[in-house]
Write a structure and sequence with these properties.
about 130 residues
Length: about 130
């Protein structure tokens, strides 16, 4: 079950990205103007423009299915899938942080350093990084 070590970094990056996506929506969005959505991911955009609850629900289902696939699939590509998803969501979360004012770039760099260290530690435990 060494693959379980691929899940914490992926789930951490995913949770940060989804949380910052919802937090980063302008006040107009929360007042009902769904046209004010700010989201670069085309799939995420389609969901969050419809409803934050739809976006969150689909995100949870997506991560559940992906986590199950990574744990069950016995091919090495499953580990690569976890790494790619972790990287993509870490970059997604960072993209929200760098927009957060004067120290945004600093927070983005700090976040990526922490995400990389957590990932490296977990992936080492999973036998993927030497």
């Amino acid at each position: 079950m060494r693959r379980r070590w691929f899940l914490p970094p992926m789930l951490l990056a995913f949770t940060v990205d989804v949380t910052l996506t919802l937090h980063g929506q302008p006040a107009e969005y929360w007042l009902g103007n769904t046209g004010a959505v700010e989201e670069a991911n085309p799939i995420g955009y389609i969901l969050v423009v419809r409803s934050p609850w739809l976006f969150l629900s689909c995100a949870i289902v997506w991560m559940s299915v992906l986590s199950g696939t990574i744990l069950i699939w016995r091919k090495p590509i499953a580990e690569w899938l976890a790494v790619v998803v972790t990287f993509a969501h870490a970059i997604g979360g960072c993209s929200w942080l760098i927009r957060s004012g004067r120290f945004g770039w600093l927070w983005g760099i700090v976040y990526l350093v922490i995400a990389s260290q957590v990932s490296r530690w977990c992936w080492r435990r999973g036998g993927w990084v030497k």
